[in-house]
Design brief:
Helix content is about 30%, strand content about 20%. The protein has helices spanning about 5-10, 25-35, 80-90, 100-105, 120-125, 130, 150-160, 185-200, 230, and strands at about 40-50, 60-65, 75-80, 95, 115, 160-165, 170-180, 210-220, 225. The longest helix has 17 residues, at about 185-200. It is globular, with a radius of gyration of 19 Å.
């Protein structure tokens, strides 16, 4: 296991590993522990009390952050025919079919969100391994395979801060909450929206305590354990 550098070790000293912090304290502490020379992303990590091997214990969905992610989201749309014009007028960065599939097969991945219309999924499906492991594969469950008339709405949502979430094989959900440069209220409101959305996504197979633990961190910083009681009591604005 690789050792952390000196800057990380110094930053970690401000965090009490045996203490649980309420969300506001955790955000303030994340700022104190930040040492990177760029605007770090604030991240939420949830350890779920679920078994990923069971279909009725899967957690997956989409959350629209009220204050976005603090970065320009590059949107790609796989489509054809009249829908090309609709996607371009809605502000998509890249629109196409076979041409985009070929570029991605050749290694190009300069986009953050991929959306598709159902009529081209036969072509897009061959990119499953490439896009799937990066969380970029269009999927009806995440609302990224849509009819042409819905493209403006979905593209607009992606621009505003649409974030997909999915529990991984270790029963953890990882989510960005925004940039460290956001003021505390914006980060707290984004956090509240995420928490409320995930609580509503509780699967039918969940038993007992749904979320086992939660932590907040920045791109380069140490993890800060959250007190579940005030965290789960948060409500979206």
């Amino acid at each position: 296991m690789a050792k952390h550098g000196k800057k990380y070790q110094e930053a970690a000293k401000v965090v009490d590993r045996n203490r649980l912090y309420d969300p506001k304290e955790a955000i303030e502490l994340a700022r104190k522990a930040s040492y990177a020379n760029f605007d770090e992303t604030v991240e939420l990590h949830l350890h779920m009390n679920l078994d990923p091997r069971h279909a009725d214990q899967q957690v997956r969905g989409v959350v629209l952050l009220p204050h976005g992610l603090g970065k320009r989201v590059r949107v790609l749309v796989f489509t054809q025919g009249e829908a090309v014009r609709i996607a371009e007028e809605a502000g998509a960065d890249h629109v196409g079919g076979d041409d985009l599939v070929k570029r991605i097969e050749e290694g190009w991945l300069d986009f953050d969100v991929a959306i598709a219309t159902a009529d081209v999924m036969g072509k897009v499906s061959k990119l499953g391994k490439t896009l799937g492991r990066r969380g970029l594969m269009p999927n009806p469950k995440s609302g990224t395979i849509v009819p042409p008339q819905d493209l403006p709405r979905v593209i607009g949502d992606a621009r505003k801060g649409r974030v997909e979430f999915r529990m991984d094989r270790t029963a953890i959900i990882h989510l960005p909450l925004g940039k460290l440069s956001f003021d505390d209220d914006k980060l707290l409101e984004n956090l509240a929206t995420v928490v409320e959305t995930i609580m509503k996504a509780r699967p039918s197979g969940a038993k007992g305590q749904y979320i086992r633990s939660a932590s907040l961190t920045t791109s380069m910083g140490p993890g800060i354990k959250l007190d579940l009681k005030p965290t789960l009591a948060m409500r979206a604005p």
